[in-house]
Structures
1.
Amino acid sequence: MRPRPVALGTAAVAATAIALLPFTLSGYHQALAAQVAVFFIAILGLNVLTGYTGQISIGHGAFMAIGGYTTAVLSRDHHMSLALTILVAFAICFVCGLLVGLPALRLSGVYLALATFALAVSVPQIPLQFSKYLGGSGGVQSATTLGHLRLYGTSWTTAAILFVLAWLILRGRTGRAFRAIRDSEVAATSSGVELAVYKTLAFGVSAAFAGAAGSLFVMGTNGFAQPSEFGILLSLQILVGAAIAGLGSLWGVLAGAAFVGLLPTISSDVPVIGSTHGQDVVFGLLVILVMLLLPTGVAGLLHRLRRPQART
Amino acid sequence: MVELAHRRFLRVRRPPASPVGLSIVAGCVFLVVGSLTSTIFAQQTVAGLATGAVYGSLALALVLIYRATEVINFAQGEMAMASVYVAYQLMQWGFSYWEAFFTTLVFALALGIVIQVVLIRPVQHKSVIAVVIVTVGLFILIDGIVDWIWSADIKFMPAPFGPKVYHEGGVAFARNDVGTLIVTFCSVVLLWLLFQYTKLGLAMRAAALRPAAARLVGVRVNWMLAVGWGLAAVLGAVAGLMAEPAVFVLQPTLMQPILLYAFAAAVLGGLESPAGAVVGGLAIGVFLNLVGQYVHFVTSELRPPFAFAVLLAVLLVKPTGLFGRRSVRKV
C-alpha cells in the first residue's frame, strides 16, 4: 500500500473540506457531522477486522459501549479531561478486543458472527446490574460537556489521527499478514504468518477504534452514557455502514458513515413520511436498495468506475 | 434433509455413544429426577419447555434457511412479529382465534416466498454479507411498517388456550404452556413429515444439498429455495403466535428477545441440524427458567449475558455446536 499521488490528493481534499466545513454549518449540523465522524471511526475499525482479516463482528456496539462508559465514568469520578479519556477508552478497548479475540480464534464465519452478536446484547445489560457504579438504566453523566464546534473539532481530529494510524498499521508487514489470513488461513500459516497473533491483534485494533468512537459518541450525546443508546441497533448500524462502505476505500468509509449517520435525520425532515416510523421505513428500504444495486458497497462501485481508466 | 446426508455417512462406523448424546441423556435424567422430587422444579421445567419450544421453532426456521442458503436471516423474528399483527387484525375483523391462526400461516407462507423472490434472490449469488445486510434492512423496514400501520402502542389479543391451570399431583401446569408445547410439536412433526415423505420435501432437500445436481435432474432449485423461505416464515409465525400469550401483550418488540435465544438455540444445536435447533431451544428454555429460580445471582438483567456466556463456553469446547459436523478445510 504505497501512497499513490491520486490517493494522497483525494485524502488532502477530503481533509481540507472537513476542516472548512464547520464554518458553514449551524451548531445543530456541526453535531450531526460529528456523529458522522463517530461512525467513520467505528466503520474504519470494523473494516480492519472484516475487510482485512475476514473475521466478522456484529458486536462493535459493545466496544463502543465500553469506550463510552469509560469516558463518562472517568469524567464523572476523576474529572479527567475528555480528550484524554479517548486515549484511555482506546487502550481499554484494545485490551478488551484482545480478550475477545482469543476465544474468537476457535470460531469462524457465522459462529463468530453470532458470538459477537451475543456480546452486543450482553454488554449493555451490565450497567443495569451494577447500577451503583454504572448508573443503571438512567446512565452516567460526565462532569464536563463539549460545545458543538469543539465536538466537531475533537471528533474529526480523532478520526484523522486514527485514519493515519490504520493506514500505518495496514501498509506494512502487519497489513500483508492480515490480508494473507483473509485470503487463505492455510496458505498464510505455511508462509510463516502467526495466525493466532495476527487475528487477535486485528480484533484488538478494531475494538480500540470502536472504543474511541464510543467515547466520542458519548460526548455527542451531551456526555451522557446510557445502556439503551448502545443497543443492538448500534452494532447493526455499524455493520450496515461497513457493508455500504465496501472494503478498502476512504470514500467508501466516508459514504457508509454519512449514510448511517445522516440518513435517519434527513429522512425525518421529509414531509409525508417524516415521522419516526416513516424514518425506519425509508432507512430499511434504502439499505435493501443499496445492497441490491451495489452488493460490494461504494468501494466496489469506485473500483468498477476506475477499472476502464486503468486499462487504457 | 438429514436423511440424505446421513445415508452417505452411514457406512462410516460411528462411535457407539458420543459425549453429546450422553450429556443430553444425563440432562433428561436430571430433569426427571428433579421434577419427581420437587413440585416447583417440575413447574419450572414445564414452563421452560413451553418457552423453549417457541425458541426451538424459531431456531428451526433459522436453520432451514441457513441449510439452504448459508445465510442467517436477521428478519426472521420481525417477519413472525408482522404475522402476529396480521392475526390480531383478522381477529379485530371478527375471525375466531383458530381461523385467524391458519389464515395467518397462509399469509406467512406468501410473505416468506415473496421476500425470497423479490429481495433475496437478486443478491443471493453475489455475496453472503450482502444477503445478511438485506435481512438487517428488512428487520428495520418491517419494524417501521408495523409501527406505521398499527402504531407501537401495546395491543391485547384473545388468548388461544385461556388462563386455566391444571393440577396434577400438586404440580400446576398452565393450560397455555401445554397448548404451546402441543402446537409447536405438531408443527415441527408436520414439517418433518413434509420433508421426509413428500416429493416436494425430497426436491427441497435435494435443492439445499446439491443445487447443481438437483437442477440437472429437473428440480426447480430457485423455486424450492423460495418455498423454503415460505416454510421458515410459517414456522416463525407459529412461534410468534405461541409467544404472544406468554407475554400477554402485543407490541413490535415482541420477537426481539425471542430471536436472540433462537439464535443461541440454533448455534447450540450446530446451525446445520434441525434436531439440534429444537433440542437447543428446549435446553435454553428450561435452563433459563431453572437458573432464574435457583441461582439468585442471575437476576433478570443478567439473564441474557449469562445465557450467552454459557453458549460461548459450549462453543469453545465444540466450535460447531452440539450436532454440527466439523468441516474439513482443503487448500
2.
Amino acid sequence: MLGSLFSTNRRLRKAEIPALAQATPSPWRQAWRALRHNRLAMLCLLALIVMAVWCVVGPIWSPWKNDATDALMINKPPGAEHWLGTDFLGRDVYTRLLLAGRISLIIGLLTMLLSVALGYLLGALSGYAGGWTDKVIMRLADLVMTIPSLPLLIVAGAMLSELDFPAESRIYMVVVMLSLLEWPKLARLVRGQILSLRERDFMLATQVLGLSSRRRLFGHLLPNTVPILVVMATMAVANAILMESALSYLGMGVVPPTPSWGNMMDAANSLIDFQRRPWLWMPPGIAIFITVIAINVLGDGLRDALDPKMKRSLK
Amino acid sequence: MGNFILRRLLQTVPMLLLASLIIFMLFAKTPGDFIDGNITLTAARAAELKAIYGLDQPLFTRYLHWLGQLLRGDLGFSLQYQIPVSQLLNQYIWNSFLLASVALVFYWGIGLAVGIASALKPNSLFDHVVSVVVFAAMSFPTFFLCLLLIKWFAVDLHWLPVGGMTNTGSDDSGWAWVMQVAAHLALPVLALVMLQAGSLTRYFRASMLDVVKMDFIRTARAKGLRERTVIFKHALRNALLPIITLLGFELPGLFSGAIITEKVFNWPGAGHIHIDSLAARDYPVLMGFTLFLAVLTIVGNLIADVLYAWADPRIRVR
Amino acid sequence: MQRLDEGAILARLLNRLTTKPTHFTLALKIALLSGMVAFSTASFADEPLKEGITPATDASQIPTAAKLRKDTVVAGISEPQGIFNPYFFVNGWDENVTNVIFSRLIDWDSHGKLVPGLAESWTISPDNKVYTIKLRPNLTFSDGSPLTAEDVAFTLTVLYDPKYDGDTDITLANIAGGAEYKAGKAESVSGLKVIDAHTLQVTTTQPGATTLAKIGGPVLSKAYYGKGYQRGNLDYLRTLHGKPLGNGPYVYDKYIPGQEIRFHANTHFYRGTPPTPRFIYRVTNPSTNFQLFQTGETDYDAFTSRPDDIEQLKMLGFANINLYGSSDYSKVEFNVHRPALKDAKVRQALIYGLDRQKLIDVVYQGYGKVAIEPIAPISWAYNADGVNPYKYDPAQAKKLLDEAGWKPGPDGIRVKDGKRLELTLLVSKKVLNDALIPIAKENWQQIGVLLKPQVVDFNALMSQRKAGNYDLASFSTSTLNDPHDGVWDYYSTESKESGYNNPQVDKLINEGNAELDVEKRKPIYHQLYKVLADDPPVILLGYRQILSASSARVTGFKPDIYNGLTGSLPDVKIVK
C-alpha cells in the first residue's frame, strides 16, 4: 500500500485512490488552468493571435498592393484612402505594415525557436553530463562566439544571390544565420543554471531516492530551468525583431522592396521625417512594442503557471 | 583553482588558432576585395595593385603569411588607412572603452536596483510600470533615441554638446579636458543606458524572483533577520550567480564599439571601423580587430567560469 | 492592381509632354484642380531652389557659439582617414583635406575647363604630344623652401614607381619612358625634362585629353618627400602621410582621429595669405550635421538636396544656401554577354519601358534630372540636341520587344526559344535603388519582363559584376572631370565584363581623347552620345544636384563640383 504511493504507475495509482486521482489533474493541465486564470497573460496571448491573423489576412482585403508606387501620393498623412498614410514612394503604409508583420513575426518566432532549442539542448547537455561533453560543447560555444556576424551575413547573402535565391526568401537565411550565432550565449546561461541547480538539496534527494537519470533530468532538473528559459525565449523574440531593425539600418536584413517593421522604421531616418511624418515610424514602432510586451507578459504568465511554488487554489 | 585556470589558458591557444583560421577563411570568402571596390581603376591597374598587395596569392599562403606576422607581434598594415593595424586600433578603441565602461557601470547599477526592487514586489504597480518602460525602451530604435536626445538636450536646451568628444578647436588639457569629455560623454551614455538597462532588469528580476521563493529565505525571515539582511546578504548573492555569465559577455562589448550610437554622436570609437573595414574589405584590420575581440570573448568566458566557481563553492566542474 | 483615378491619368499625360523638373509641380496643380486629392502643406508648395547661391535672409540668427569664434572657420567633413597625401589617399574625404594643404599646377574652373594654378602658362606642341609647363616665379612650399620644376618632375616620377599603390593612374598620361622606369630598365623617366628651375617639358607617346590634368596635379616637395628616395621603396613615404608639407592656402597643424583636422593660414601661399587665420575640418555625419550647423558648431557643411533639408535651412535664416550640379551620373549597366541583352532592340525597349522621370522625381523631388547622355549638364560637353531622350513609352517598348522576337507568354512574361525574359538586377543599398526596384519591377511587368532584384553590399556587387554573374547592375560613376572619364567604360578593352563592343564608339572615344581643343572636342562627343543612344550600353538614370550651406558669419564660399569648398577657401572671410 505504501509502495503504491510512490509508484510511478499512474493507472495503478488512480485505481487505488480513485477519488484523489480524479481530483488531481496532471501538472501540465494544472499549469494550463493557472495560465487561463491569469487574465493579463490571456489578453496578451489573444493580442498576439489577433495580430498574427490580421497580418496574414489583412493584406488580402486591402485594395493596395505592396509594390504599388504612386509618385503623386508620396508622403501623404493618414486619410480616408490611405488609413495610415503613404511612404516616400506613395505606397500604402497600412498594407505594408501588415505585410511587414508577417515577416517580422516569423523572424521573431523562428529565430527564437531555433536559437533557444539549440542553446537549451546543448547547454543542458553540457551542464548535466559534465566531463568531456561539457568541455567540447563549451569550447565550441566559445569558438562560435568569436565569429563575426556581419561578414557572415554578407557572405551568405552573396552566395544566395549567386544561386539566384528569390529576394523574399533571403530572410530565412538571415534567421538561420542569426540563430546559429546566438546559441552559445543561451547555452552558457542554461549551463550555468544547471550547474547551480545540480548541487541543490532537492537534486540530492532525487539521487538518494534512486530515481533514474532520465527521471532526474526531465522530471526535476529541467522543469526548474523553466524560469530562465522563459526569459531567454521572450528576450530572444524581442532581440530578433530589433536586430532585424538594426540590420536594416546597416543595409542588411530584409531588403527592399520587401517590408519588415525594421526596415519601415529605417525609411524614416532623419529628424525631419521623425517629427513631421510620424505615420511612417509610429505604426511599425508601436507594432514592435506591442509584440515585445505581449510576448514578455505571456512569458511571465507561463513561468508563473509552471512554477510549482506559486500558491494557487486547486479547482 | 589555479590548475583549472592554467588548463583553460592552455586550451585557449589552439582555440584562437582555429578561430583565426575560420575567421580568415570567412573574410577571404566574402565576395570582393579591397581593389574591387574602386571603380575608377582600369583592368590593368587593378591587376597591378592586387599583385602589390599580394591579393592574388592563394588563400592558404596568405593565411600563413598573416600568421607569421602575427607571431612576430605584427598585426599587419591597414590597406585603407595606410598605418599599422595596432596603431589604428589604438587610436579608437580606448574611446570606445571609455564610453562603454561608463555606460556599463550605469546600466548594471540601474538594472540591478530596478530588477531587484521589482522582484521584491512582483505584479505590483511599480513592477508593471517598470516592465512597460523597459519594453518601450527596448522597442525604440537606437537611431531615433539618439536623435531625440540630441534634439532635446543639445539643440533645444543647449545643455549639452551635439556630438564629438571634445570642443572644436579647444586646446584644453588636464581637468578642463576631463570636464569637456564628461559633457560630451553624457548623451551617448544616456542613450546606451536607456537601451541596455532594460534587458538586464528582466534577467535580474527573474533570477531574484526565483531566489526569493526558496526555503532558505523563508528560514532567514523566520529567524527574525531584518529584511535588508535577508535580501542583501542572502538572496542577492545567490541571485547574482546566473548573472555572472552575462558579465562575461560584456568584455568584448567594451572594446567593439556601439556602432549606431557612436556614429550618431560622432564619438571617435572603434564602431565605425567594423563597418568601414568590412565594406572596404581591409583584411589586415578585419583580422586584427576580430582576433582581438575573439581573445576578449574567450577571456571573458573564462573569467565568468572562474567567478562562478568561486561564488558558489558547491559548483565544481567535473 | 493600382487604383487609377482621373488625377493620375491626367498626370501621366502631362508626364509624356514635358520633361522639365518643374513639370512635376505643374502636374500637382492639375490634380488639385480636378479636386481628386487633398494635399498637405508639404514642401512641394515651394518652387524648387535655383542653382547657385541663395543668400541668407536674417544674419541676426547666427548662433552665439559661432560668434565666439573670432578667427576660425569650421567646415564639416564626413570620414577622413588620415592619409594626407594627394597621391596616396584612399577616400574622397582625405582628398578634401589634401586640397587644402596642396595646390595643383593646373586647376579647373567651375565648368571643368583647365585654368592656371601654380603653373603660370603652358604650351602644347602641334602634334599634341609635348607639354611645356611654365611655373610662376618665386613659388615656395609652406616652410619657405623653393618650389621648382625639379619638384614637379620628382612627383611624376614617384607615380611611375613600381610600388606606387595610389589612385592616380599616371600610365594613362603615356609619358615617354615611364614604362621603362617602372620596369627597372631606366634610371629616370626620359619624357620628363627639367629645362630650368621654372620650366618642365613633358613628352608623351600619344595625345590624350586627360593628360594635362593628370600631369598638372599637386606638387610634392622633393627635399621633403624625396629624401632618400629609391625606386621600389615607398614605405618611408607612408610615415609622412600624417605630416604633410604642402603649398596650399592652409598649413596642416593637427589631426585628432575621428574628431577634427586643424590648419592655419599659409603666409607663403602664391595667391596671398588667406584672410582667415585658422581653419578647422570638423567630423560630422549626415544624421546630425544639420544640428551641428544649427547650433553654430560648423560654418559650412554639405546636406542632402531634398526639399525638407532646404526648407529647414531656409528657416534658420542665417544660412547661405548653395545648390550646384554634380558631375556624375547614375546608370544601370547591361551585361551584353547575356543572349537576351545582345540585341540592341531589347535594351532600347527596357529603357523606353522604364519611367525614369517618376524615379528621379521620387528620389530627388525636383533636384535631379533624367540622364540622356553619359555626362552631366554642368560640363562643357553636355549637349542634348538630337540625342534620343527615351521618354517613357511602354507601347514603343512592347513594339520593340515584339520585333526582337519576344512574344508574351501565358502569364504575361515574354518568351523566345523557350526562354523567359527574366533579368537579375544587382543593387547596393541606396535611396536611388530603394525606389528603382519597385518602380522598375512594376514598369517592366507591364511590358512583359520579370525583374529579379538582388541587394548586396557594394564591394560584393563589383566582384559579382567582374564575374559576369548578372544581367543588370546599378551603380553611379565617380566625379567626372573630363567627358572622356564618362565614356571610358564603354571602350571595348575596358568593358570586358559587360561585353559591350561597338567599333564606332571606340573610334569616337579615341578621337575625343586625342583632340585637346575644347571647341573641336564638343562635336565629337555630341556625335558619340548620339551613337551611344542607339546602341545603349547602359540605362542612364539621372543627374543630381548637391546642396551645401554656409553661415552668414562668413563670406566667400563658392563651391562647385570640380573644386568643392576648397577652391574658394582662400577667399573666405569672417564678416565683422
3.
Amino acid sequence: MKGPSTLNTVNLKSRLAALTLPFLLTAIVASAQTTPAAPATPAKTQAVEPWKKIPIPPLHAFKPVQPRRIELANGLVIFLQEDHELPFISGSILIRGGSRDQPADKVGLVSLYGEAWRTSGTATIDGDRLDDQMEAKAASIETEGGTASTSVRWSSLKNDFDTVFAATTDLLLHPAFKADKLDLAKHEMEAGIARRNDDASSIATRVAIQLAYGKDNPYAREAEYATVDAVTLKDLQAWHDRTVVPNNIIVAVSGDFDGPTMEKKLRAAFEPLPRGEAFQSEKITFTDPKQSVNFVDKSDVDQSNVFIVGLGTERSNPDYYALSVMNEVFSGGFGSRVVQDVRTKLGLAYSVGGSFSASYDHPGIFYVQAATKSVSTVPATQALLAEINRLKTNPPTPTELRSAKDQVLNSFIFHYDSPDKTLQEQVTLAFYGYPADTLEKYHDGIEKVTSDDVARVANKYIDVSKLAIVVVGNQSEITPKLDTLGKVTDVDIAIPPPPHGKPAE
Amino acid sequence: MALAMTLSFAARAQDLASFEKRTTVKVLPNGLTLIVCERPEAPVFSFYTLVDAGSADDPQGASGLAHMFEHMAFKGSTEIGTTNYPAEKIALAKVEVAYAAYDAEYRKRVGQDKTKLEQLHKVFEDAQAAAQKYVIPNQFSEIAEQNGAVGVNASTGEDSTQYFWSMPSNRLELWAYLESQRISQPVEREFYKERNVVQEERRMRVDSSPVGRMVEQFLATAYVAHPYRRPNVGWESEISQVTATEASAFHAKYYVPGNIVIAVVGDVKSAETMPILERYFAKIPSGPRPEPMTTVEPPQVAEKSVIIREATQPFYIEGYHRPDYRDPDDSVYDAITDIFSNGRTARLYRSLVRDQIIAAEAQGFSGFPGDKYPGLFAVYAVPLPGHTPDEMRTAIHKEIDRLKNEDVSDAELERFKTRARADLLRGLGDNEGLAHQLAEYQTRFGDWRQLFRELDKINAVNKADIRRVANKIFTDSNRTSARIEFVAPQHPTGGAK
C-alpha cells in the first residue's frame, strides 16, 4: 500500500538517480496498499460513530530539547544535540554550494565530487584503507553532492568518536582526489545515463521537471555523457577550495556525548580555519510552462504515467499556510479529493498524488500525477484536470477544512518527536536563513487558515494555462487518442551519444 | 572478542535485561498475542500488526488474494465506512450474487452468450451502485489521519501481511478500536473498484518495469512446486477474476487471533495499556489456526535459466535454494551476505565494481522472495555500458568459488559480527522499527527475546561454516539465473509516432 506522496524536487531527482536493485526488488516483493481518502460527506449519517465516544486524554506535556547553537569567530556554525538513549555519536558537515551552482557544460560535477571525495581519501590515508578502518568499527564517513550543498556525514559508536572524527576532519581539510576514483564515479554515472529510459515513471518524472522548470534550468538539467566526460580532477579540487571555508559551513552533532567536552573538541578542530569568501549562488530565473500536451512513446508498457506540472512556490511566501491546507484538501491523505476521486471512486490508478510544493529558496513544483492503464489515459488525465479546476470553483467544505487542518495539527508532534529531527529542522532553517521558530509559526499559521483563504490562493496560484501535461505510455494502446486533450508534442528523450563514440572505458 | 565487549550496550543498558523490564507480552484467551514495549522518549507510539499469512498462502487460482485483502482492510468495518450497515450488508450480498452470475457466463468455454453477458454485467453494475449508496469512502483511514496518524500503511509479503502507523500517544485507545474493527469485522465494500486499483499496481510494479518482468520470470522458473513461484501481486488473469466472497473466506481462515501478533512501542505504560488493548482485542472470536502448508519445494535437479531479449539495458541475477530461517546455519547465510555485499569493503563491490570495472552495482542477499519457507540466496549485478550479463556471471562465479575454496579473512568475519551488533543497537532507538522487530521475532520464534539472542548465533559463525555452507548450496544444479540481453529496438524510442 502506498500513501499519497508529497514530493519536492529533491525527492524527484533522487528518484531519478535511483538505480539500486534492492529498491526495485523491494517494490516487487512487498507490494503494499495505501489509499488516501476523500472527505466524507454522506447524505445522511445514520451510523452511531462509536469512535467519537472514545476519550482522548490530553497529550503528555512535551517540550523538545532544542540543539545548542554556537557560532565561531570564523563564521562556522555548530549545533549540538545530546541524546543519550544509544551509545552512538553522529554528525554532519553541510557546505554551501551544490549541483545548481555547477557550470552547464559540466553537469554531474557535484555528484562526481561527492562520490570521489570519499572514495579517494586523504593525503595520509587512501579511500580504500579508510573503508577498511571504518567498516571494522561499524562506523561510517560519507560525502555527498546535493542540490544546494555538499556534505560530509559520519557516525560511530561513541567510544570510537575521537578516531572517526579525526578521520572526518582529515577528509574535510586534506582530500586527495584520485584519477581512478573519479573514473569509477564517472562509470557509475554513465550507467545511470544509459539506463535512464528503461523505466517509464522515471522518464515521466524527469520530463515533468524539465517542463516545469525549463530544460536548461539548473534544477532540471541532466548529466549527459559529454558533461560527465568534461569533469576533471582539477575541477573537483577547485570546487573544494571554493566551497570548503568555515563561513560556508554548518556542523551538527548528535548523540551520546557531554556538551561542553564536545564543544571543546569541535572548537579545536574548526577554530583555526581562516575565513574565506562566502559562497554566492547565481540568480536563477523561472518561467511558467506553457499549456501543452507532451508525449513519450514507450512500447513495452501497458500503463501510462501522467503528470500535470507547473511552478510551485517558496516557503517564505505568506500564502504558504493556506497553500499547505489546500494541498491537504487536494491530495494530502486518504481523504483528499484526488485520491478519493481518481483512485477510490474511479479505480483508475494505484499511484496517484500531487502537491503545490514549496522549496526554501526557489519555487517548488506544482504537480499532479497518476499511473493508469493505457486505455484510461485520457479519462484519468481529464479527471485530474477536473480536480485541479474544482480547487478554484469549490472551496473546501467545513468538513474538508476541519479534516485537512486536523491532519496537519494532530500529527504535528511528528515534526519533533526525536532529538535528531529537532536538530535537522534547525540545521535546515539555519542553512536557508529562516528563523528558528519557523515550525511554531507554521502551526499557528495553519490554525488560522479559513476556507476563504484556500479559495483565494487556489484562484491566485492555479492557472491551467500555465500547466503542462506529460504522458509516458504505449501509443498503440492509448484510446481515445491523446489529441483529445489538445495538440500533442512528441518529446525527444534520445540519449545524446558519448563524445568519443562510447563511454570512457 | 575484546571488540565485542566494547560494543556491549554501554550507554543506557540497551540490553535484553533492560528490555525485559519494559516489555510485556500477553497471549489473550482467543490466541492473539499482544506486546507492549515502553519507550517514553516522546508522547507518541507506533504499532505493528503482523498476520502470519502472506501471498504464499494465496489459494490455487487466486494468486494475489492476500494482497487484495490487505487493500480491503482499509475499507472499514461494520461500524466504520457505512451509513447503514444492515442495509449495506444485503446490498453487498446482491453484488456477490450478480457477480457470480456474470462470472459463470464469462468463464463459459463453449456457448458464451454475448448479449446475456452484457445484461449480467449491467445487473452487476447496478448492484454495485446500489451498495455504493451506503459507503462513506475511506472513512477508516480518514479517522486515523485526522487523529494525527502518520505513515498509515501496510504491506503484503510472501510470508506475512503487516499493518502499521504512528500516532500521538493520547490516541492509543482510538487506535485499538480501529485496529480491532478491521481485524474482526472487515466489510468487503467497493471490492471490484479496488480490484481495478490492484491491477494498476501490477501494471506499475511488474508489467511496465523491465526488472519487474524479469524477477517475475526468475521466481516462476526457480520454483516448480512451492507458492514462492507466484508473483505476490498475483497473475493478471487471477487478480482480475477474484471475488469479495473469496476475500472474506481468506480473512475467515487466516485472520484468526491465533495467527496475529500486535506490538505497540512508545510512550505507553503496560499496566495501563494492556487492559485497554484487552478490552478491544479479547472479544474477537477465536478460530482454528490455519493448517501448516504441505508443499515443500523439491530439490532442483538441473540449472535453469531465463533470457529476456528486449530493448532495455542488460541485467543479471542468479539464485540458489537455501533452507528456511529456522535452519541452524541461518546466521552463516547472513555472514555470506555481509561479506559479499555490505559497503565498499564487500567482495562483490571490490571485485566487479572497483577492480574489474564491469558493473555499476553488485550484491548478494538471502531469503528471496521470503524466508519462512526455503528461499533463495540471490546475487545480481548491473553491467556498466559495454559489458554483458555473461561477464557478470563469470565474475560472480569467481567470487563464489573463492568462498568455497578459501577461508574468509579474520577481518571479514570480525567485521560481520561487529556490524551485526551495532545494527541491532541502532534499531532500538526507533518506535516503528522496534515494533516491527518485536512482532516479527515473536511470530517467528514464539519469543521476542530471540531478537537479542540472534547475536549468540552470529558470534558462533566460523570460517569453516562459511566454506561448508558455500559448498553446500552454490552448486550448478541448484542455480537459476535470469538476464536481460539488450536488443536494439525496431524503431528508436523518443516520441516516435
